[in-house]
Design goal:
This protein is of the alpha+beta class. The protein has one domain (3-121): Roll (CBS-domain). Helices cover 41% and strands 20% of the residues. It contains six helices and five strands. The strands form two sheets. A three-stranded mixed beta sheet has the order 1-2-3. The chain is globular. The relative contact order is 0.22. The structure holds S-adenosylmethionine (SAM).
């Protein structure tokens, strides 16, 4: 199976101007843990997870740009799911934005999506 077979659309993303408090609401209301931060063209700039929100609380930071991870590990829609699992384990992360050739965010694939897929075939 390829990433494109299980990708969920539309992607839930946010701009860098979102506050930490708003970002935390987006995570909770959508029951997600990975929020790609995009520029005006919806291209990937960074990523925020609940771990980063906890970091913002611990360090009293209120700007997303101060807490987002800028070196984003991403996948393309044509990659096999196994490659995504390898990237997650190699980088100690549990989700990857899926981006097209222009780095536009198409969706997110999480470890939960992969475990559901494996569970479906067991
Ligand atoms: N293992 C846990 C997890 O998977 O969520 C937490 C540890 S992980 C090192 C937490 C950090 O990884 C956060 O600062 C988050 O921004 C970052 N992160 C999560 N997904 C990422 C991705 N696809 N690319 C780069 N960094 C990512």
């Amino acid at each position: 199976k390829l990433v494109r077979d299980i990708i969920k659309r539309p992607p839930i993303v946010a701009k860098q101007t979102i506050s930490v408090s708003e970002a935390s609401k987006v995570l909770i209301e959508n029951n997600i843990n990975h929020l790609p931060i995009v520029d005006e063209n919806d291209c990937i700039m960074g990523i925020i997870t609940s771990w980063d929100i906890a970091k913002a609380m611990a360090q009293s930071k209120s700007a997303i740009s101060d807490i987002m991870t800028r070196y984003v590990v991403w996948a393309s829609p044509d990659e096999p799911i196994e490659m995504v699992a390898k990237k997650m384990s190699a980088n100690n992360i549990s989700g990857l934005p899926i981006v097209d050739n222009n780095k536009k965010v198409l969706g997110v694939i999480s470890a939960e999506d992969i475990s559901k897929l494996i569970g479906h075939y067991m």
